[in-house]
Known about the structure:
Structural class: alpha+beta
CATH architecture: Clam
Number of domains: 1
Helix content: 10-25%
Number of helices: 5
Strand order of the largest sheet: 9-10-11-12-13-14-15-3-4-5-6-7-8-16
Oligomer: single chain
Radius of gyration: 19 Å
CATH topology: outer membrane lipoprotein receptor (LolB), chain A
Largest sheet: 14 strands, mixed
Amino acid sequence: MMKLQKYGFLALLMIAMLVAGCRSSRKAAKEAEGTEVTTSVDGVTTTVPEVTTSKASKQSTTAVTKVAENRQSVRGIRSKLNVALLSGSQMSAGGTLKMKRDEIIQISLSAVLGMVEVGRLEMTPEYLLIQDRINHQYMKALWHGIPHLGAAGINFYTFQSLFWDELFVPGKMAPDASDFETKKQGDDYVMTLAGSADSDAMLKFLVEVATGLVRQTSVSSTNVNAAVALDWTYSSWTTLGGKPFPTQMQMDLNSSNGLTSARFTLSRPQVDETMGDIRTTIDTNRYEQVNIYRLINRLFK
Length: 301
């Protein structure tokens, strides 16, 4: 069984690596931003960046269009899940993954043949929650209050893009073609943020030319004081709601402390359009709150 301390640390380390790579990338993204448009559908008003092509290359426009065609139209997905740490003391745990578009990502880990829930990682647009049900501890914080995340443009929607296999730009709700510089390399489009060539950080996507599938998302920093790299690699696609969806995601974190790898394997993923409110309620009389801010700051020392 995977120790919850390792699970929680992995979640925080993943955030730390994203911050280190995205902080400078966001500056480049802001310089490439276009205007915003407001739309209203069924009485719901939404403001998103305008999709512009005047500053975008033909390859960027083609790549973004192909990826958009693969975007899941379903709002809810649930699946059995195996999380495995592949480096150091190798461990694994079963569990479930539940996701509701623009509302929640919830990973639950279980022991004893999946009958006992031992921990939970939960992300919503408002907060990040890590719950240790064995030691009765939890860490919960609002995104805008977590050290370093705001400056890097990292929030719930960053992780939603990673888990749903989509493009993202730090600090933006939705990317468009003008955000990227794209070149064809073998069977892939290599997409990087426009204007990031002179940055000490790089956000890169590998998109398969033939299918428009995002095969890998990479965030790296070449800063000598914080040289890190995160590779999030997708494989083994299935079909959900008529669209492709990866059933295996591997996260590789490379830093001065070495390589840390984790693999998320989904089995029997299903569309769940009737998923209700699954947000976790913490009984503060039974659970002790741990300072998440202190833990994240420690990762940057």
